[in-house]
Specification:
This protein has two domains: about 10-115, Beta Barrel (Elongation Factor Tu (Ef-tu), domain 3); about 120-289, Nucleotide-binding domain of ferredoxin-NADP reductase (FNR) module (Rossmann fold), CATH 3.40.50.80. The protein is built from seven helices and 15 strands. It has helices at about 10-20, 95-100, 120-125, 140-150, 175-180, 225-235, 270-275; strands at about 25-35, 40-50, 60-65, 70-75, 85-90, 110-115, 130-135, 155-165, 185-190, 200, 215-220, 245-250, 265, 270, 275-280. Strands 10-9-8-7-11-12-15 form a seven-stranded mixed beta sheet, with helices on both faces. Strands 4-3-6-1-2-5 form a six-stranded antiparallel beta sheet, with helices on one face. Strands 13-14 form a two-stranded antiparallel sheet. The radius of gyration is 19 Å and the shape is globular. The structure holds flavin-adenine dinucleotide and FE2/S2 (inorganic) cluster (FES). Flavin-adenine dinucleotide binds near residues 72, 91, 251 and 253. The site of flavin-adenine dinucleotide has 21 residues, from strand 4, strand 5 and helix 2.
């Protein structure tokens, strides 16, 4: 059963889609797979009817909506260029995301984008890369990790990923593949847990053990706001400077295209100039971190 806002019949929609260039107009995507992955998160594989939506890069986001429920920015979690589908992983926290969680295979989502800046893969080539993800920050990080591990030309790759508990960890079954492709995956949980034999403590507890090649290492941080300051301090202790640190910032968004001002930090529109920033670009925006 199709629950919300199904588009008109497929044989009539394609000529219309070809003419849609406006960033304000969503286009439909059909849900091919909807899988509950944790208590709060559901993973969706979506085929967009407009192939333009597949032209995305790691770090970018889409505005995902349902008629009557509104829209929300959601990061792409699949690697670009690998399929005719998009992967999205959505945490149910409110009006729109709760409604999306009620959808299943064969239902439709309405999607605009891709929007925002992305991680500069070309700049990362030849460098060691440290991915630091906290909580749901692993969702956009997955797109970047998948893009990096499938290509040659990067140095040593290390993922440090922390969550509150083992039950909340995402994508653990895929991490064997990331390991096999040369990524050292280090996991941690915040507090001791009877079924956990690994590291306990916040992500910063794993940073002092890292071997870092000065000037040849790039760090990428995505996580809850509280995490950034402490991770940046630890990385600076490892002599990784702001020119070599990338962050993705989450701010409230409404239009996604620089018109409404909801995402503004002083004069900076995160939907346009971000969400991916080099830390050195934020030196005049202390409110950002
Ligand atoms: C660039 C970007 C990428 C994102 N990627 C993802 C993703 O891949 N998966 C995912 O699950 N979520 C992601 N989010 C967060 C997601 O957009 C929000 O959870 C969503 O907007 C909530 O919408 P809602 O209508 O369900 O909740 P609402 O009913 O609007 O709000 C529910 C609660 O969430 C709070 N809230 C709403 N938006 C935000 C926000 N941006 N930051 C902090 N608190 C908020 C509200 O204050 C309220 O307490 C992303 C956000 C940004 C800016
Ligand atoms: S979300 Fe509207 S200006 Fe950025």
């Amino acid at each position: 059963m199709k629950l919300y806002g199904n588009p008109i019949e497929g044989d009539r929609i394609e000529p219309i889609l070809e003419n849609i260039e406006s960033p304000y107009l969503p286009t439909p995507g059909i849900i091919e797979r909807a899988l509950r992955v944790t208590e709060k998160e559901k993973f969706f594989t979506v085929t967009p009817l407009s192939p333009r939506l597949l032209d995305y890069r790691p770090g970018q986001f889409f505005m995902v909506g349902l008629p009557g429920y509104g829209e929300a920015p959601i990061s792409v979690t699949s690697a670009p260029g690998s399929a005719k589908t998009l992967d999205l992983c959505i945490r149910a926290v409110g009006n729109l995301t709760d409604a999306v969680h009620r959808l299943g295979k064969g239902d439709w989502l309405w999607i605009r984008g891709p929007f925002g800046t992305s991680f500069p893969l070309h700049e990362m080539k030849g460098k060691d890369i440290i991915f630091v993800a906290g909580g749901i920050g692993i969702v956009p990080m997955r797109s970047l990790i998948k893009a990096v591990v499938r290509e040659h030309g990067f140095g040593k790759k290390t993922l440090i990923y922390g969550s509150k508990s083992p039950e909340e960890m995402l994508f653990t079954e895929e991490m064997e593949d990331w390991r096999a492709r040369g990524c050292d995956v280090q996991l941690t949980i915040d507090k001791p847990h009877p079924e956990w034999g690994g590291n306990v403590g916040v992500v910063t507890t794993l940073i002092p053990k890292l071997k870092v090649r000065e000037g040849k290492t790039i760090a990428v941080i995505i996580g809850p706001p509280v995490m950034y300051k402490f991770v940046i301090l630890s990385l600076k202790g490892k002599l990784i400077g702001p020119e070599h640190i990338f962050v993705s910032l989450e701010r409230r968004m409404r239009c996604g295209v620089g018109k409404c001002g909801h995402c503004q930090i002083n004069g900076c529109y995160v939907c346009q100039e971000g969400p991916v920033f080099k830390l050195s670009e934020l030196k005049d925006l202390p409110e950002a971190i």
